[in-house]
């Protein structure tokens, strides 16, 4: 790209050295700088890019963007000084890739719970319809059936633009992104032009970062503000108005809003909801009439997710029939109340619930279908060094289950004793065990289970690891549970 065009987007304080005519690459990590590239020095929480300038030059960087004076050989590189390098990369990244989000319909999904579920449902239905779509979020970046790993639900600004560019270059017409409140506050979505913003719900989570619910709600609202004020463009907000925060989301944009709800009036609502363990049916009441809906996803929360998906695809211009056909065949997102298929006399679900509201919703999704005299066993852990306020509330919600096993979920450097002690405070009954080692906790759940029981392993979802100390150890609730079940119920029970 021509460097004059690229850098004209920056509020430059000073340039030292001679800028090349063309730059070939943009990077914030000295290890990935390529010859002829631009290296932007970002001051992160743990590392400061200014310390890696020489490494970047050795790798072939031709331009350095810095906010502090650096000593370099100006015959080799040019230095652009700016006030704030994080803002600089947010301006450079979309321009470097020619504003890729403008080349696709971009859907952003935010909220405390349901982002991964809704985004993957959207992607699955679009793929079913035959539209080329990509999705990125907690589970990864899914393009052309290949799943690339992502570090966070919402990636840094440069990676985000790279992914969008990759999807646009692969001829995707739609890209769905899970948008976290951290990502919004930290400007990681800068330069991403969304066409549809979806709000699922807001409940207690991440208060270690946001401090108050007010800040947290404001952060989510930024996605709606980010739809912009160019009303000549057809853009939509999709809002759950059963949630008290729904109204606030509406205030954040002037673009048209389509609402959905189960308990209040809205553009898209569900009536005659029939929830079973096998799936869900309801009558959709929409601006274009009433329709029968059937899907394999379970639990009332999935009715909300389905309404969000239906409203989004309707706003995007799809026919109701093709939307509902797609919805009837798609599976649950990986690790979201995902049933482990076995011949065991038990029912096992792997779930990702790790906020109080999600825990309640996950348990309620199966509790009504438990056989008489059988029990619902719920295994729940919480992360170390993170949001401690939510721990007792999580245990309180988990108490709806008959037997609860409190354990860890990425304990990091925190001793499990303090994690368990803070969880335990919220327990409402005495039918529980505290087992810090998650593998032992999973084995214990299976060992106390009897025929007809249901076990939900919550918190890990699609994740195949457990972070202990600084190490990422391989871990699978499902694999451990099945191993224990085989020991208990005998070999051959898992032949499915
Ligand atoms: N709309 C919803 N409302 C409440 N809980 C939900 C909803 N959708 C999913 N859940 C629960 O929350 C967990 C996390 O869902 P997920 O889709 O991964 O949300 P997110 O990506 O927002 O963290 C699921 O495993 C399920 O237990
Ligand atoms: Mg997610």
Main structural class: alpha/beta
The share of residues in extended strands comes to: 15-25%
Q: Any guess at the CATH architecture of the largest domain?
A: 3-Layer(aba) Sandwich
- Hetero ligands: adenosine-5'-diphosphate, magnesium ion
Major beta sheet, specifics?
11 strands, mixed
CA-based shape:
globular
Number of helices: 16
CATH superfamily of the largest domain: Mur-like, catalytic domain
Q: How widely separated are the two ends?
A: 54 Å
In round numbers, the mean pLDDT is 93
- Report the helical percentage: 25-40%
- Low-pLDDT runs of 5+ residues are none
Total E-strand runs:
24
Strand order of the largest sheet: 9-8-7-10-6-11-12-13-14-15-16
The name of the CATH topology of the largest domain is: UDP-N-acetylmuramoyl-L-alanine:D-glutamate ligase
* CATH class label of the largest domain: Alpha Beta
